[in-house]
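Mods, move this if it's the wrong board.
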Amino acid sequence: MALEVITFGCRLNAYESEVIRAEATAAGLADAVIVNTCAVTSEAERQARQAIRRARRERPEARLIVTGCAAQIAPERYAAMAEVDQVLGNEEKLRRESYGASPRVLVQDIFAVKETATHLVDGFEGRARAFLQVQQGCDHRCTFCVIPLGRGNNRSVPMGDIVVQARRLIERGYREIVLTGVDITGFGADLPGKPRLGQLARRLLALVPDLERLRLSSLDPDEIDDDLWRLVAEEPRLMPHLHLSLQSGDDLILKRMKRRHSRASALAACRRARDLRPGIALGADLIAGFPTETEAMVENTFALVDEAGLDYLHVFPFSARPGTPAARMPQVPGAVIHERAARLREKGAAVLARSLTARIGTTASVLVERAGFGHSEHYAPVRIASAPSPLTLPSLRDRPLPLPAGRGARMAPSVPSPERGPSTRAQEGRGEGGILGDVIRARIVGATADALIGEAA
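Not the wrong board. Structure tokens:
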């Protein structure tokens, strides 16, 4: 039987799952399932436990390994599950020797880790864009966030290593790379000379001229450096899409969250982005039902969405995580949390529809992620109306496409291959809608509630 990796959570986990696949395969692990967990919410952990039980039912003879943030934070909880054969920490999961004869529970103190080892990744199963880790961990301590307990303190990847990995991915045929980490605006604080994220992005684009599309994962609005702002204004290969970690539109809640930004500085960042790059798309993470949140505070968040001109909302119902200060604050009732989250998601659907409608009549550059579907440079979903309707790409069969956060993505069984980038995958199904990894021009002729409708230009 083959090795299978099931991934939950963030883009960093998706990147690390490819490292896990490579290291476990090199160690000779074959009949096994590895579950790479997330701990950002209790729902993410519930889904992971559900996946563990399902994997054991489906593959009763396989070796079942649990790793990721949830396993790092509470290894005893997963070791107590009868279905689990081994628990690995976030550092151990990236080491080849962990998949040989090692203890059943192998989890070290994550705060003792001072550096981030470089791992070269050849590709990402079933994905048209590549993720590139630039840092690990976080030095901030937001009161709601448990992730530092799973990831440790900020540790940056040296810039030279990032350039080498980017070149490798471009050689494999990737046209778009997403810089990812836990807190990417914290990049460089621990490196000699303390380079910032903007300097890294500028050097990456200069030294990897064949990189067509560079995208950034979530940014802290108060920590966007001047060099990065200049790239927003001047560099067409930096995609016109920023995702901001805003969390709330109320100053008192932001203070209780121990965020670095204020409502005013968040709005200032959004205005600056639009002034520098007219038409730029802005997304944001928002938490509904943070402890002590009142209805008036909720309204401040709704108002922020409009004042900032946000295009995409990623809404999290507040989830009290053990060991965090927010878990000890006066809690909002669960039913109220979910009602507020539902209202925020309705708001998100409305602003998305407005944003998509405004792009009718434009021409978009679309990265094809499956037959007839992809995302524009503004990260708008695009359906290519003239594309072949059946999915005729054998290389995509039984492989996952990107899932919403918190969902588990089941990676295809490992098949040794020297090159796994999208340009080397099967070429069947090429048509006006392109193949996986193509970048095509599309005239935007219409929009639905959640996607643009394009015709190949």
